[in-house]
Structures are given as C-alpha cells and as structure tokens.
Amino acid sequence: MGKIRIALAGVGNCASALVQGIEYYRRRHNPEAAFPPGLMHPDIGGYRPGDLEIVAAFDIDARKVGRPVSEAIFAPPNCCYRIVDELPEIPVVVQMAPVLDGVSPHMAQYPPEQTFVVADAPPVDVARVLRETGAEVLLNYMPVGSEDAARYYARCCLETGVSFINCMPTFIVSDPDWAARFTAAGIPVVGDDVKSQLGATILHRTLVHLFRKRGLTVDRSYQLNVGGNTDFLNMLNRDRLATKKRSKTEAVSSLLPPDFDPHNLHVGPSDYVPWQKDNKVAFLRLEARGFGGFPMHLEMRLSVEDSPNSGGCMIDAVRCAKLARDRGIAGPLTSISAYTMKHPPEPMTDDEAARRVEEFIRGTRER
C-alpha cells in the first residue's frame, strides 16, 4: 500500500513512543507469523504500523531543534520508556516551530532537565515545510493549554490539504465551525485529545458503563492522576487546564444520566512527581447503590507508562486517516475519533465506537 507520510508537531514523549513503536513493529513484520501483541489492529486497509514514515518534525527545544528525529526523541526532558534498544537514523531534522503559547511561564521555575530550553532560532514556515515534504498527516502533540499553537497547526493543515490529528484538548475536530472548514477543504481529520490504549479514562468509562448496565446507580466518582513527565509539569498551571479537565470529565460524564450532579464527579490531573518520570499512576473511586439501595464502593489503582500507552491509539488513528484520504472522505472521522479520543465530535460508548471502526475499515461505514 505504500508509506504514510507523517509530520510531528512536538517531539516529546508521545512522539518518542510513536517513533520507537513504528520501528518495533517494522522489525517484527512477518506475514507468515502471528503479529506481535500490543496492537488493536495489526492491519488497517493494508497499512501496518511499519508503513508510517516521518517526513517532518517541529519543536522549540534547543536540545532537539537541528538534530535528526532519531536522536531528538531521546533528548531531555524526554523520559519515555525505551521500546527499542537501537533506532536506525531518521535523517529528518527537527525544525524550529513558532513558540506562540507552547510554553507555560511557570516552567522557568524548574531545572532544564525537567522542562524546555527554548532554542534561539527563527521559526520555519510550517505550511511550506508540509508542502515540500509531501506530508499527508500531521500529529498535533502540543502541550495542554497551547490553544494558539494548536490552531496554528490546524490552519497550516487547512492551507496544505494535510490531515490533522489533534492529540491534545483544544477543541478543533469536535468544534462544528472547524469541522465544517475541514469538510469544505476535503480533508479527513481525527480528534480531540488522545485516549490511552488502556488508561485511566478508558478504564473509568468502562467501569461506569458496567455499573449502569448491571443496574447500579452511580452517586459519586473521582479519577486522580499523578505523573512525572513534562505533561504533568505543564499542567501544574491550572490556567492552562480548562479544556483538559473538560475533555476528561466529559469522556466520563457522557456515560452518566443527564441529571447526574456534576459536583459528584471529579476527573483531572492532581500533581507532578518528578521521579515518576513517564509513569502515570491513576486512582479511581466509584460510589454506587445496588439492589434495595445497598452501598457499593470500588477503588482501583492503575500504574502505566503514559506515552507508549497513547501510541496504541495513534497508530490506528493515523492509518484510518490515510484510509479516508485514499477513499476521498472529508471532515471528522467520527468512528476512529470516538475510539481513540476523549472529546470526539460524536460521543458514544466504547463498544459502539469499536463496532463502527470495524465497519469503517471494511468500507461499510463512510466515517
């Protein structure tokens, strides 16, 4: 089927996990053998994970700008779990992006190994680079709260015909005005705010759905997350957290009754613990009532490497975007967005999203 030419807007931990994962599955590709574990879909429309090819990358950190992607993904402050011991050189050089609102002022209070060292270099014209490299899909890995930066990359995609996959919680694909613009431009898009393959949000949603399917009334619930990567450090600035909190909350509340008291649901990041690095620990609690009103309390602790956990969803989102491009489909891809994103344009249960994705891949559902 050929390669899928992708651009990375941000070369942080999530980008590192994705790039390493592409190589991991490329090495293990054997049509005659069972496919290695860790994938929701080994094959999507003839495309396998190893078919993704990095053709452009943008960042603002002095330790990444000007270096090949294969080196930059391991530069501080990245602390992603090593998926592969060695990575072949990727000759694509990370280019200086516009800073815009991509760095929170509070980050300056922390040591360089935990945060950004902004490069002293002029920003490139991202739209021009996308055209010159023939990029087909751009992954927006900007930090939470980078509202202007996210919209800048979305405009670059509109200008160049590149598909936009919005991995962060600035509402673009789920915004009707933006969605209409991408539809009119003939560009398939996926968003917003990537889920983990099996993380706190998908687990929380599954538990809420299970409780309700089994006739229990959920009264109160919380989800508290603690981590040590740059994402958690960035989110210490609560002013940048509004869309993230809304995205994570609505991912759970969409499965609760319309009259559920919003004060009884708390979902969001809690704190930054540097030594945890890319490991995220999530604490969940549900309080419910069952037969005859008997009380039931469930508590759960999940510990997981945060960035590789998002890679399982991104590898599917990219391939579905490419499949849509091959088929001439435009606008938000509702099935894969609901399957891989916390704030999709059309919320639905995870079972329904999975069913629709299978139909989309087979070609019996348009989007």
SSE topology string: EHEHEHEHEHEHEHHEEEHEHH
Q: What is the CA-atom radius of gyration, in angstroms?
A: 20 Å
Mean pLDDT: 95
Beta-strand residue fraction: 15-25%
Number of helices: 11
Q: How many beta-strand segments?
A: 11
Terminal-residue CA separation: 20 Å
Secondary-structure-based class equals alpha/beta
Strands of the largest sheet, in order across it? 3-2-1-4-5
Helix content: 25-40%
Could you give a short account of the major beta sheet? 5 strands, parallel
Shape: globular
Quaternary structure classification: single chain
Segments where pLDDT lies below 50 for 5+ residues? none
Description of the structure:
The protein has 367 residues and is α/β, with parallel strands linked by helices. The chain contains 11 helices and 11 strands. It has a 5-stranded parallel beta sheet with strand order 3-2-1-4-5, sandwiched between helices. Strands 8-7-9-10 form a 4-stranded mixed beta sheet. A two-stranded parallel sheet has the order 6-11. Helix 1 (13-27) packs across helix 9, helix 3 packs across helix 4 and helix 9 packs antiparallel against helix 10. The protein starts with a strand and ends in a 5-residue tail after the last helix.
